[in-house]
Amino acid sequence: MKNAQVPAARPVPPDLTLAVIAKEPLPGRVKTRLCPPCTPVQAAGLARAALHDTLAALAALPARRRVLALDGRPGPWLPPGFDVIPQVPGTLDVRLAAVFGACEGPVLLLGMDTPQIDAAALTPVLAPHAFAHHEAWLGPASDGGFWALGLAAPSALPVPRAALLRGVPMSRPDTGALQRARLHAAGLRTGTLPTLTDVDTAPDALSVAALAPHSRFAAAVGALPQGLLTSCTTTGSHP
What we know:
The structure is a single chain. The protein is of the alpha/beta class and 239 residues long. It has a single domain, classed as Spore Coat Polysaccharide Biosynthesis Protein SpsA, Chain A (Alpha-Beta Complex). It is 29% helix and 15% strand. It contains 7 helices and 7 strands. It has helices spanning 40-59, 92-101, 119-126, 130-133, 175-185, 202-211, 216-222; strands at residues 17-23, 65-71, 83-86, 107-110, 136-140, 146-151, 190-192. The protein starts with 16 loop residues before the first strand and ends in a 17-residue tail after the last helix. Mean pLDDT is 92; it is low at 1-10 and 234-239.
């Protein structure tokens, strides 16, 4: 994917941090729902490509700071310009909250499952007054979860940022709705980013590769044995 660049002359929120939460793409630790039809090694290759594309897209965008909250060790897929911090132990809601706690100012946090991400999808939250008009931004996922969450600086919020995440059930078809409800209950004006597909299943992988044909992820999908992913019909999904 040729990641769209944000014009350098266009201002963005002056203290915005772009953050990614991810696992080191090792066989057996990532993309396990792709196994079968993929082997753990093949699934890890897809995860590695997806992570590379995600980080490359954010590296091309203007930001005060870029952070990777990593479960594992960095590899050659990590571009320059990212501060790597370890994930804390605990459930996903706890780990997400910790990333926000490690960052100052407004933060936009993404996962590693949307390699099709580009500047166009993030245009609303990169606007110079994005966090003046909204205290939160949510990127819904097509499976009911969410692929991005943006929160204003702690000083602009009525409650601690951790309180906006801790206790929200994760990896459920209603996770996105529950997260949005938590934001609304706190009185936050919540903007909405485009709905994207997370790569969780074989059909997801094929769909996302088609959407981003020039991406490293699409190349990794194309390098798999012909028909491997189309041989698997998966009906389940989770955020």
